[in-house]
Amino acid sequence: MKTSPRPHHPQPSGCVLNYIIWVYTTFQDIAPPARLAHARHLTIESSPSAGSMAMTKGSEIISLVSERQDRDQFRRKNWVGTFEEYLDIVREHPEVTRTAYQRLYDMILSYGVEVLDRNREKVYHYRFFDDPDHNGHDAVYGLTGPLHDLVNALKSAAHEYGIEKRVLLLHGPVGSSKSTIVRLLKQGLERYSATDAGALYTLGWVDEEDPEEVHWCPMNEEPLHLIPERFRDDVAAKLNVGRGEDDLKVRIRGELDPFCRFMYQHRLKKYDGDWTRVVQDVRIKRLILSEKDRIGIGTFQPKDEKNQDATELTGDINYRKIAVYGSDSDPRAFNFDGEFNIANRGIIEFVEVLKLDVAFLYDLLGASQEHRIKPKKFAQTDIDEVIIGHTNEPEYRRLQNNEFMEALRDRTVKIDIPYVTTLANEIKIYEKDYNPRTVPNKHIAPHTIEMAAMWAILTRLEEPKHAGLSRLQKLKLYNGKSLPGFTEENIAELRDQAVSEGLIGISPRYVQDKLSNALVAHPEARSINPFMVLNELEAGLKHHSLITHEETKHQFRELLGVVKEEYTNIVKNEVQRAIAADEAALSRLCGNYIDNIKAYTQREKVRNAFTGQYEEPDERLMRSIEDKIDIPESRKDDFRREIMNYIGALSIDGKKFDYRTNERLNKALELKLFEDQKDSIKLTSLVSNVVDAETQQKIDVVKGRLIRDLGYDDESATDVLNYVASIFARGDAKEK
């Protein structure tokens, strides 16, 4: 029988995928034994890109991976041994027997702690929450206080002071980092369990028919649970010999789970009560926690009540195995794969925990208080795991108002996770997602993210009760700016007076969404500026699903006006500084001012460099500079003497006076020089689009300074100059 010949496949050029397809289809016409030789021929001789592919041979890639792999580490992570060997490990490293709370607390401490002094109180900043393992990808900013409270709760639970019998409840508004904090804890515990410092172990049973097969404990049991109750104190004493009072000591608590208990009792009968023979059938292995593999880390999320039942927490009967083992109460015919089961020795997260049906909450109560769960058809089973949930304000209010939930309220430790109320930290949240690396094709103009963050913070602050203090000034105080009459104690009082501050206002997610909108809504623009984002923020308020009161929307729009006014002041100042950034001119102006105040304070005359004549100090010049920083007429003598005393003190120390080291004087000189130069630059001519060559040259110099010194690009610098020019033009029109 004739077969039709295969169509000819031309050799592709440049495309590796096509080349692979070509090789594969060519091989179909070659007898199997000859394919390998033919493959070598194709690779070396026939391939049109053999020369280019020589740089990326498969063997080189394999060698690359081989050189970097750590097989010793792999062996340590996959260690399997006997119960006797495990006892030796425990004697040498008692930390392998830590409780879940102890292990989690030690994991956080392993990243280091920074002690901060907040209003004469020590606050601990735990570097773990900076997410150093992922370059800050999930870093939590501005919540040092709440995270300090969380770690204190974990510390108390680690020392078994009572909180280990509670549910840790993270409470806060949507988007306040509750889920992020729990995700960090779960991922950190995974990584820690893979290190030597975080090692833990579990047990399994050698199959009676096939010694090579091991039936591992479905609940990651602590191997020391094999030791009978009456011997535990003596065994623990032996294991703790030589340890000091402050050293971690081995404590044996908890019973075997139903599966291991069944296997234990079966072997005990088989060996006529000889416990030493029983443990010879036991194997111990290193346990690496993994959320993906459902080992030691569980997550439970409420779903539709019709599609969810309590077996998702405590496991269910395996009906296919009932026929094998003959009973639905045989633990071998039960799947111990509920979230409580698989999270044993680690951590379980309850997403939106207060939305759970009452039936689930009963399991939660026993798991927290008694450290026990009740699988179907089995007795109560011991667990050792951190139980942490999170919820928002409406759900928590419902809990408080529900008298039937009193038992749950009594078993929870609430930890508030509010919104950030510090501008610098809010900016970090957005810069993490919007920066030149993540947004390479768009330039984000200076202050764009800052203004969006400022508005978000303002919505979260309560109106100050302090007379004469605006909400914007309060924001600046919280951000570290000093204002006359306000000390650190005053700022702490402001925070204490604001009960709901940080629990109200705009979520960071809303701001992130509007920043994204601004990036795509202006495809023709090479950069986005603050007004683009502020307009998006305002437009979105109309349909904001979480803001239902028109009064609140009106208030938030007014705060947008406050932010726009603040931005105007900032860019006016930046343009003024760019215009007045002529160092030589500033130095000349400063020298002239210093000569005049020196003559004034010493009651001398000033020599006119042009005429050579001695004249009275130029009061008009001095006051024109001092007015720029609001030095009143009555205070001018004090200010001038203050400057001269400062210069004299520097001279005694052999140092030279530099006006840039005096912030107030530097600002005054810049404003004075700007006032003198703005008319010569004719910035307002930009508004009329009639700019002569000389003026354009000066404007280009200013634009260059904005780009070089302040981070603008050409487009955003032009926009800012046009905007500030229009402000000056309106000001000139008012004066006329």
Q: What does this protein look like?
A:
This protein starts with 15 loop residues before the first helix and ends with a helix. It contains 32 helices and 19 strands. The strands form 7 sheets. The chain has a 5-stranded parallel beta sheet with strand order 8-11-14-4-15. A 4-stranded antiparallel beta sheet has the order 1-7-5-6. Helix 20 runs parallel beside helix 24 and helix 23 packs across helix 24. With 736 residues, it is of the alpha/beta class.
Fold blueprint:
Blueprint: H1 16-27, H2 32-46, H3 50-53, H4 58-68, H5 71-77, E1 80-82, H6 83-92, H7 100-109, E2 113-118, E3 121-126, H8 144-158, E4 167-171, H9 178-193, E5 201-206, E6 214-216, H10 232-239, H11 258-270, H12 275-280, E7 282-286, E8 297-300, H13 311-314, E9 316-317, H14 319-325, E10 334-335, H15 339-342, E11 347-350, H16 358-369, E12 372-373, E13 381-382, E14 386-391, H17 393-401, H18 406-410, E15 412-416, H19 423-431, E16 443-444, H20 448-460, H21 471-478, H22 488-497, H23 508-521, E17 527-528, H24 530-541, H25 550-579, H26 583-601, E18 606-607, E19 614-615, H27 619-626, H28 636-652, H29 663-681, H30 685-688, H31 693-710, H32 714-735
Parallel strand pairs: 4-14, 4-15, 8-11, 11-14, 16-17
Antiparallel strand pairs: 1-7, 2-3, 5-6, 5-7, 9-10, 12-13, 18-19
Helix pairs in contact: 7-8, 7-9, 19-20, 20-24, 20-25, 23-24, 24-25, 25-31, 26-28, 31-32
